[in-house]
Amino acid sequence: MYTTETKSEEIFSNYVSLGDQWNRFRADVKADTLRNGTFHFEFEARIGNSFTSDVALDDISITKGRCPK
Question: Rounded to an integer, what distance in angstroms lies between the CA atom of residue 32 and that of residue 44?
């Protein structure tokens, strides 16, 4: 994640297989230090050599407030 006032912040990384099912991930992003509220999100993925080495993103949403526990 990049903001206009900060450099980058990695909020999730994974280097092992998560299996062949959808996995949910939630993260809180602190916005209290921002002056203009501008965000820039980047999603980076690397796939392996196997035909089963897939990457997918689905149902991405950004909402105000803390993530539910």
Answer: 25
The single residue listed with the structure tokens 């392996």 is 48
pTM of the full predicted structure? 0.57
Contacts with 41 (C-beta within 8 Å, 6 or more apart), sequence order: 1, 2, 62
For the record, the structure tokens of 8 come out as: 């980058």
Domain that holds residue 29: 1-69
For the chain, list residues with pLDDT below 50: none
Sign of the four-CA dihedral 53, 22, 9, 34: positive
Cβ contact 23:17 at 8 Å: no
